[in-house]
Amino acid sequence: MRKSLLVLISILSAVMLLAIACGSDEADPNATDTPAPPNTIAVEDRATEPPPPPTAMPAEDTPVPSAPAGGTVELTIDVNGEALEFTTASLSAAAGSEVVLTFNNSSSVNSHNWALVEAGTKDDVATAGLAAGQDNNWLPSGDARLLSATILIGPGESGQATFTAPAAGDYQFVCTFPGHNFTMFGTFTVN
Question: How confident is the model over 126-150, as pLDDT tens digits?
Answer without folding.
Answer: 999 999 999 999 999 999 999 999 9
